[in-house]
Amino acid sequence: MVAIGVLGSNLYIDAISPYYHLFPEISFINYTYDSPWEINHLIDQAGKEVDFLLFSGAIAYYFGQKKINENQLMATYVPFNEFVVSLSLFSIYFHEKIPLEKISIDLPKQEFLENVLKEIHITDPTLFVKDYPWVYHVEEEKAGFDITQFVHFHADLYKEKKTQFALTSIHAVYEELQKLSIPSIYMVQPKQSLKEGLERAVTLTRLKKTKDSQIAVISIKIANYPIQQEEQVFRLQILQHLNQMARQLNARVSLDQHQPFTIYTNRGSMEVALKEQNLQKILELEGKINSPLQIGIGYGYTMNEAENHATEALYFTEKQATEKTTIFILDEDKKLIGPLFENEKQYVLKNENQHIQSLADQLKMTAKNLIRFFDFVRLHQFRSFSAQELADYLTVSRRSAERLIKRFLEKELLTITGEEQPYDQGRPRALYNISEKLKKYFS
């Protein structure tokens, strides 16, 4: 059964758990905390037990980012919005009869409150508001978060008789205000928001399961492949090592191919291997066979798509230094990741928009083939190339590649930058590169 972890305060868990029954196919596991910035051990625990993690709010999600990434967890949080603010203010006004100017408020962004007031045409109110908008910038270095500042904010205003009531968006602050006997409530949690939070987590978990079932193809090329008379013994040795690795990946090694060798598995098994660093064991193969390897891993919803992506990822490894093993991954969205276990980066090779479609129409080719050409230019690191290199990448004849190049030349999208002399006695071959006119499509 699919498991989703729900991480929040006791108040939040009590509010959301009555709706778990709406998703009978999901097992929900609760992880409760007293303070949202002391949750690292809970995330570590969840990483071993659940497929997805739902946070109660942006604060816990913000402080949990490092551990989320370490555990390679998919996660989201129940969003804060204007509906929460308006319901909370209405509740105070209806039950306590306290005017807005006598309420102290803390919330993620003051903009939420301003939007509510603007909608009901309340202008220039005297408000006591403290916000923490940095919580939405998860990519930034984590700042300290002292709840005592928020407790003092509400308490000082109340003691000075500037306010009569406190509205807080932080569970820990609410609990402290209650201890101080300061009239207060925690922001009202709309049932619809709680249900939508669960539904979003379930939808993203199902999407993750779909991705886990994708086909994964590993294409492996040996740099120092032996000459023909020694090839058979070497191939048997390689297959033995690859079969040992395949057992860890729940995978199958193709016996139909020589160089490059191919392993078939699924994305879920691959990502578990990456998470547990089992795939690093393939680096040990370099020492056993005394040769670096180029490894391309491709994900796809079909066998053909995964094989093509593995081939493209392998092509990129060959453009790197060949004195050591290099591994790249190309996923179903044409996102290239690598080199693995080094200074890993991500490149988006997919570029679908109206400008690309328009250019494809001008060149009388499909957008898919145009994007493949763009992939080639990027993978070739924008260096000059020959028709044969383009043909090798597109797996077409050189004549077909020359016809394609001619279309680009006619539209002044390529320029001739020089020529190369082949090793035989043939004619020199032209070298091409993209023109300034085409460069704008890569920005």
TrEMBL record:
Q: What domain of life?
A: Bacteria
Name by which UniProt lists this protein: Transcriptional regulator
